[in-house]
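Figure 2 data, in text form.
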Amino acid sequence: MNREKQILYAAEQLFEQANVGIIETVFASDYVVHDGDKTHKGHKFIKQFINQLRLAIPDIKISCIEILCQTENIITWQRTFSGTHKRIFRAIPASMKKVRWNEIVVTRFEGAYIAEEWIVSSLAFQLLMKQNIKK
């Protein structure tokens, strides 16, 4: 499977199907993800994050994946998600509203595995914007 197809496969299987069984075949055992000022490591983190996200937004769908730039070992891409925020997610209460957000991802490969990623996401902002804030 080429790297572009591997990214598409991993995104669909993890986010839409919640198939965490594919993690070992797609991600390096010492996988690292950078999210803002936070760094997370390993397969356990991927599983926990997918489970938390799918509990909060169980009908999550990927509406678009676009490859922006590709070199030998790095792919920069954008993904767009949508779904209904039905349970608390990272201290943000459920709004029961539809939410749509974008993420920019830089993925670095080592051999056949995704080894490291940098992610910029608008998810938290979009969830906060859906809150019923009364003054």
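Caption note: The CA atoms of residues 17 and 87 lie 18 Å apart.
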